[in-house]
Design goal:
mainly alpha, 63% helix, 5 helices, elongated, 132 residues
Length: 132
């Protein structure tokens, strides 16, 4: 076995592990979002359609009148920051404290499952938008 073959094997292993982790992450978020959308009064199937689920999440988080601000996600540099803000505010709309919402940004699948299956968590309504 050469060094090049060993390196290729390591890279394939790392890539495969990352792919598996991403797939598990996506499945957990999809299942829990399905339940959270239902808690917020929307049809659960809307969480399963890519991009449309972000639009509905925007409506859940900030209200229907702020729905077009989801286009901020398409702007380079602004998009990732707005995505973090959207996830943070989505957690707050289900009653998470500020600290919990920060942790929600980093551990979305875990907190989504907690919010989805915890009978004590309820949809609090749209959050205040930073441009009001």
């Amino acid at each position: 076995m050469t060094d090049e073959t060993l390196l290729q094997g390591i890279l394939i292993g790392i890539g495969g592990t990352a792919l598996l982790f991403s797939l598990i992450w996506y499945i957990l978020v999809a299942i829990s979002n399905y339940l959270l959308f239902k808690k917020a009064g929307y049809a659960g199937w809307k969480s399963l359609i890519p991009f449309y689920n972000l639009y509905i999440q925007q409506c859940i988080t900030f209200g229907y009148e702020k729905r077009w601000f989801i286009l901020l996600l398409l702007i380079p540099l602004v998009g990732p920051l707005y995505g973090i803000y959207l996830v943070y505010s989505f957690g707050r709309s289900f009653g998470l404290s500020a600290l919990q919402a920060v942790l929600y940004v980093f551990f979305t699948p875990i907190f989504n499952l907690y919010l989805a299956f915890n009978d004590g968590s309820r949809y609090q309504g749209p959050q205040e938008f930073f441009i009001d």
